[in-house]
Amino acid sequence: MIIMKSDATKAQIDAVVQDIENHGLRADVSQGDFRTIIGLIGDERKISFDHLAMLPGVKEARMVETPYKLISREYARLAGESEHRVIKVGNVEIGGDKLVFIAGPCAVESKQQLFKIAEGVKKAGADVLRGGIFKPRTSVHSFQGLGGSSEEDAVEALEWFREAGDKFEMPVVTEVRGESQIDLIAKYVDIIQIGARNMYDQDLLVKTARTGKPILYKRHFGAGIEEFLSFAEYMVAEDNKDIILCERGILPLGKGRSYTRYTLDLSAVPVMQKETFLPVIVDPSHAAGRRDLIFNMSCASIAAGACGLIVEVHHNPAEALVDGQQQITPDEFAKLVTACRSIHQAIGNRTNGG
Amino acid sequence: MIIMKSDATKAQIDAVVQDIENHGLRADVSQGDFRTIIGLIGDERKISFDHLAMLPGVKEARMVETPYKLISREYARLAGESEHRVIKVGNVEIGGDKLVFIAGPCAVESKQQLFKIAEGVKKAGADVLRGGIFKPRTSVHSFQGLGGSSEEDAVEALEWFREAGDKFEMPVVTEVRGESQIDLIAKYVDIIQIGARNMYDQDLLVKTARTGKPILYKRHFGAGIEEFLSFAEYMVAEDNKDIILCERGILPLGKGRSYTRYTLDLSAVPVMQKETFLPVIVDPSHAAGRRDLIFNMSCASIAAGACGLIVEVHHNPAEALVDGQQQITPDEFAKLVTACRSIHQAIGNRTNGG
Amino acid sequence: MIIMKSDATKAQIDAVVQDIENHGLRADVSQGDFRTIIGLIGDERKISFDHLAMLPGVKEARMVETPYKLISREYARLAGESEHRVIKVGNVEIGGDKLVFIAGPCAVESKQQLFKIAEGVKKAGADVLRGGIFKPRTSVHSFQGLGGSSEEDAVEALEWFREAGDKFEMPVVTEVRGESQIDLIAKYVDIIQIGARNMYDQDLLVKTARTGKPILYKRHFGAGIEEFLSFAEYMVAEDNKDIILCERGILPLGKGRSYTRYTLDLSAVPVMQKETFLPVIVDPSHAAGRRDLIFNMSCASIAAGACGLIVEVHHNPAEALVDGQQQITPDEFAKLVTACRSIHQAIGNRTNGG
Amino acid sequence: MIIMKSDATKAQIDAVVQDIENHGLRADVSQGDFRTIIGLIGDERKISFDHLAMLPGVKEARMVETPYKLISREYARLAGESEHRVIKVGNVEIGGDKLVFIAGPCAVESKQQLFKIAEGVKKAGADVLRGGIFKPRTSVHSFQGLGGSSEEDAVEALEWFREAGDKFEMPVVTEVRGESQIDLIAKYVDIIQIGARNMYDQDLLVKTARTGKPILYKRHFGAGIEEFLSFAEYMVAEDNKDIILCERGILPLGKGRSYTRYTLDLSAVPVMQKETFLPVIVDPSHAAGRRDLIFNMSCASIAAGACGLIVEVHHNPAEALVDGQQQITPDEFAKLVTACRSIHQAIGNRTNGG
């Protein structure tokens, strides 16, 4: 990290950037109100910080020990930049003063099903519509989403999805699972999701980030927080800062019966909001894996400081093709939205860590 | 489990109990409004359920697969007993309609420190006073509490503790760590705590339960929920149903830096309240291990449905002999109490799982 | 799973396959010496097993509960097929009677480095040469392998690699990290590795399997065995049965300092060999993360029944660009090979689970 | 830690010890061939190391950061003491040049059963006889060992056990589960076991250590290595250095079916042998929980460098009252002993970390 003097000239800054690039690294320039900070992207051992410290206009040059820095809240503060990124998607602000509710079916099954649910969640208070088209599944023998059937089915499902978003005035988000789906998905949706199972897939992260679309990025169930943030850095290093971090549960611990699919790690919410400037949301549906816990765990997520939720809603959960046991009805969703808003007020409308 | 006919006579019930005891087992008789259920304590394989089913007055006799049954909410429901146990300690009700706040220093350090903190937490809204005298520590080279110094110091600390509870009108709770401390502690306190590290210590559980005192029982950081409940069953099998279950964090998962001491498992709260009739509280202090997360994690615990909290409070955390970095001030505690009460209202005052 | 009668005709078998495909599933036909078994690939709920059971020539039709079946040893046994797959790569047999040693540098750094190490490991007893070109890294700020620098560097490194393999008469294996690298890598190497971080990346698995090349497939550090085997099934479903399973350590458990990078799960070795017909090897280098444990953990892997090892070797570990602290010298590697061969004899040359 | 000058007098050493005790700490004096090292037991913050450094005869005084030091191999080396403790029990040496095999039934069920198995394991090569009398169990509803029935049954079982050990010339080891059993058990057995579930029970550790008997101490399934060693330190702080560390499996990780009861952590074996001077053995039976893995996991344990094994053996596993599915027959045990001895030779008879 290079901190420039407050009176450093544009030419001096450019010279430092040039020097960095000459060493095979890339530079990330943060121009704050008071000073400019230049981050190094790539292997910092390739360059001498003593050398950098002596370049004209440089106040301080030091290696940053943390495996992430571009997404760091402290780094933003030093540069005088905003410590809370607000991501705007259409009329929706993620990470702002109001809670954001993302809702919809686990998987898009048919146009009729999608529109029925979209209408239901909109009325109940949803801001963004979710729906799975390319479904990651543990077993090759399970339904893989309409995207898994054929290219044509995938395109048709994406068209319905776009149409539903437009009709009910909600931006739409769906998951990308492999590199070859990126361009197609980017054409139709407002936010691209990278799911927990792909969290470590750095090539997918880099290429998805290059679309410039906001990314809803889920933590892997075996990933520590530091690792999750380190991989988020891959996307911001592509100059896409519209990353929404999502906690969705870690591996259950201990012998015996597991009462939930995963263990929701809610202390990760305030921790990540203190570590980064990115907004943090929670997915209680996949973590719990059972309908009767969604209300309490949604409320707990907001109380922990999350700035939004992504919840699976189905008009008839018993008939859902995927994960029926964890989807709630639009009516249940409406109650949850109301309770969450009261809780948000009870904690002083504080999200983003303070 | 033996379900008696609704018109079974006292003599028939006694005969079944006698039969069970003849086989080397013990019987737990639950007399509900509508029928009587007899639970078997001990190795059920010693007895034939076909034989039991044919005894006079018996409606049904079947082996219960779950490793716990005496604490089971379903079992209580079948017997027509209350599905939510309310534990009364002095004027305080744990598991009732009102939230319960247990607060105080991590360790009792001196009479002056204890009284200062007791006064502070009482004003801030605490219902029960906590304070450690026999401290379990990972390292033999760390301060082990005043109880670790000498018998006399232990007695003196317990006397201060009792006096503080009486003066500020709060029942008091402290931790027992070994069998030899049980009698001494039971003489002075209202609630005995069995800490996470002793969760599996079945001899300690049995002997502490026999004091008849309410027990605050903490989940071990490596224990699954089923295991925790199975060990709670050891105490209820001694006919002490005044067990308060406490979630205090499980082992952190994943590579890299751990940002919290443990990972608070908040979905355990509604899960345990659906599985048992025992009240469930949360200890955010030991789970987080850092002061700046206590507010959010306390709020999240109540939103998840906990019926109370146990929080470490110190008038001067920087000078605390143990765990200073996780103790909050009485003022911070007062704010937390207020927010928690609002959240409790926002979720409809629902605790104990619905 | 459909078990055909022993006298079922080719026409009957074809008709069953056709019927399966008409329902939107694919069929995997295993023609054993005694009977034919037809596996279903895809969502089995789409088809009625009662219907299948009545087709001519069908002896039995039932849903298989396990999320994997194509790789199942039991399934192979039922079909009369081999319960131990031996994968031939050049003159090397993986999964046969002799142990297989895969060795080489963590990362290919230069032609000189590569050739020096290749020569060293060959002399010490290596059968296959390994070397990383596209390196998955937790931090975007770390060296990503020569493949991470530019397309040209990647091609040059692959050419050196091929040349080293030819010169020292060893098949070569390198890791693929993203879909866009598959074709390039497949042109140069004999075995393609899919690393732990990409274990869940089902699109990458499917496309790599389609190259027809043998795949060295590593278990993710957060994956249970069932999950690992379920994802291996994605590749076999593409009709590529040359999958080498590799255990490389799971997440460390517990508080406090971690003395190894990961925890090697050696009971996974005999377990997987009993569950599947695929050969199982172990990577002690990434699991331990420290040189002084490689000898003991290699010996333990072979004693646990592994049919081979993949070990990182560097002629000068102190100067390695990546993971120097876990690479051993060719001399140390030679001693390890000798000890492993003695141990293999001591356990009766039993690998592949018995 | 205080390192005395090589010419420090006895009086100087005594004065330092006195000074330490005056500060409320205890002193552990290690008189090596070349110099004397004085360890501090208790909270080191109570004393000034600057003050200690200036006492006559003191060469160096510094705080030791590690939570364990009395059991540290480095500490032993500095003092010129042995880096490998050999524990002598009757004619058996644990931690010496020869492997040690501890075998016997999971639970003592009857005199006849015990003698039959004792005879069988002796013939097969066992050095020490094991047998459970006070059984820790997850469920209060399971058989708790003969010690769980009545005081008389416990005494009778202990008498059989002693008699079996004497008759077949093997020292005997059984588990203590609660403080009240210590005196009784110590009267009858040669080695006292503290099981995994009691690992954290510091009062039990301290009191058992005070018997002066060798202790077989098992790692808890949720404990990190550092934590395990820290708690072992509690016993050595009572001046009992005859502690045998035992790895018996940690919590399984990951979603889906668990194929073993626990996950044997074999890299813990060489790690602990490098960290401490205490001997390390492995219990493959409880870790695997299934008979068909015991051979491979025993071999792997010895290959990893363990200096012995504790294995459950039953003449008729199908009829065992506890854990029948993990017990092997005397014949299977004999084969395992033979293979382990060959492996021990193959790795150069190296145990205790090299």
Give a written overview of the molecule:
Four copies of one chain form a homotetramer. Chain A is an alpha/beta fold and 354 residues long. Chain A folds into two domains: 2-65, Phospho-2-dehydro-3-deoxyheptonate aldolase, domain 1 (Alpha-Beta Plaits, 2-Layer Sandwich); 87-346, Alpha-Beta Barrel (TIM Barrel), CATH 3.20.20. Chain A is 34% helix and 17% strand. The first copy, chain A, contains twelve helices and 14 strands. The first copy, chain A, has helices spanning 10-22, 49-53, 73-78, 111-124, 151-167, 182-188, 202-209, 225-236, 268-275, 284-288, 294-303, 330-346; strands at residues 2-4, 26-31, 36-41, 58-61, 87-89, 92-94, 100-104, 128-130, 172-176, 191-194, 215-218, 243-247, 280-282, 308-312. In chain A, the strands form three sheets. Chain A has an eight-stranded parallel sheet. Chain A has a four-stranded antiparallel sheet with strand order 2-3-1-4. A two-stranded antiparallel sheet of chain A has the order 5-6. In chain A, strand 10 (191-194), helix 7 and strand 11 form a beta-alpha-beta unit. The longest helix of chain A is centred in the middle third of the chain and has 17 residues, at 151-167. Chain A is globular, with a radius of gyration of 21 Å. Chains in contact: A-B, A-C, A-D, B-C, B-D, C-D. The interface between A and B is large, with 50 and 50 residues.
